[in-house]
Amino acid sequence: MAALLEVDGLTKAFGGLVAVSNMSLAVSPGEVLGLIGPNGSGKTTLLNLIAGTLRCDAGTIRIDGEDVTRLPNHLRVRRRINRTFQLVRMPPNLPAIVGVMAGVMYGADPKPYKEAEYEAAGILGELNLLLKAGHRLDQLTYIEQKRVELARALATKPRVLLLDEWLSGLSPGELEGGMSVVWSLAAQGLAVILVEHVMTAVRALCSRVVVMNAGLRIAEGPADKVLRDAEVIRAYLGDDDAGGS
């Protein structure tokens, strides 16, 4: 199947620090691509480049064949790409449904207020949050807040979804539920990039995994094979553990 998102040679430096160096990857509809690596390896910076919240120094980004490299974030949302964040970025006193309505009203298929309210309620219902629609974010549990942020992203009608540690910090039961949500999104045809440290989820969800370290791609392939790679183990655990594997 042809790739929906194509990233070719992306590079980003902050002064003398090269955070992302010549990164390339592709994701097809219905695929969950894992993006893993130790803290500080450049994963979130890469998502920021793809989403358009940072401008790359070199390289190209294409969505369904269209070059969006120079488009700002809000126009990439209109091209049907959106993301979640490691930490929920919605005002704590905002009712859940209002945050999701904003996604509907300013997304790829904008709707007026009443239609946006109806559509937002439907999205919250799909994520088992309809009864919490009127609650403020600071009245919700951690997993509920994460689901509201996902609902906001889905409200913009993305075809490419970037999940930045969306499954982190969850209990085993919450993790199972969160994984089911990601499976469902892929089954609907979304192309998903999953940045994650929870290897149980990576193994279960991802058909392929890309590993970053110090801004570079150091491995790519099926999850089980990649996670046994000596260079990947070295990146996470150090030379002694890699040598003994």
What's the β-strand tally?
10
Largest sheet, described in full? 6 strands, mixed
The CATH superfamily name of the largest domain is P-loop containing nucleotide triphosphate hydrolases
Question: Helicity range of the residues?
Answer: 25-40%
Cα shape: globular
Secondary structure class reads: alpha/beta
The helix/strand series, from N terminus to C terminus, equals EEEHEEHEHHHEHEHEEHHH
Query: Which segments are poorly predicted (pLDDT under 50) over 5 or more consecutive residues?
Result: 240-245
Mean pLDDT across every amino acid position: 93
Rg calculated over all Cα atoms:
18 Å
Strand order of the largest sheet: 6-7-8-3-9-10
SSE map:
Blueprint: E1 5-14, E2 17-27, E3 32-36, H1 43-51, E4 58-63, E5 66-67, H2 73-78, E6 81-83, H3 96-105, H4 113-126, H5 142-155, E7 160-164, H6 172-187, E8 191-195, H7 199-205, E9 208-213, E10 216-221, H8 223-227, H9 230-237, H10 239-243
Parallel strand pairs: 3-8, 3-9, 6-7, 7-8
Antiparallel strand pairs: 1-2, 1-4, 4-5, 9-10
Helix pairs in contact: 3-4, 3-5, 4-5
